[in-house]
Specification:
Radius of gyration: 34 Å
Number of helices: 3
Structural class: mainly alpha
Keywords: Coiled coil, Signal
Oligomer: single chain
Strand content: under 5%
Length: 111
């Protein structure tokens, strides 16, 4: 009779580790899901730095385009084109508004 009970418990003993593993997965799943959601919702410092760098480069590119447009309109204005003078003034105002948003690189010392 004892042997029969022992043999009956053997399959249960073999299945027990997988049950414990499954229970542990089920219990920790919500914690992992919340952790993944937090990772998606937050921006790491390196991601924030990359985004800031992209934004600064975008502004610098815009400033370069505006400066070229301004130079062209200023040349046309000097030749007597009143519309070009008005355009040059509008472009200059946009340049003046954009410049403060671009950080200035510190000058490197030459030793």
């Amino acid at each position: 009779m004892r042997l029969f009970r022992l043999l009956a418990c053997l399959p249960i003993a073999l299945l027990l580790p997988s049950c414990v593993s499954t229970v542990a997965d089920v219990v920790t799943a919500p914690v992992r899901a919340v952790g993944a959601a937090v990772d998606l919702a937050t921006t790491s410092q390196s991601e924030a730095d990359e985004n800031r760098g992209r934004e600064i480069r975008r502004r610098e590119e815009r400033l370069g385009r505006l400066q070229r447009e301004y130079d062209e309109e200023a040349r046309r204005c000097e030749r007597g084109n009143d519309e070009a003078c008005r355009e040059a003034i509008a472009i200059r105002r946009e340049i003046d508004a954009l410049i403060p948003t671009i950080p200035v690189e510190p000058e490197r010392r030459r030793d």
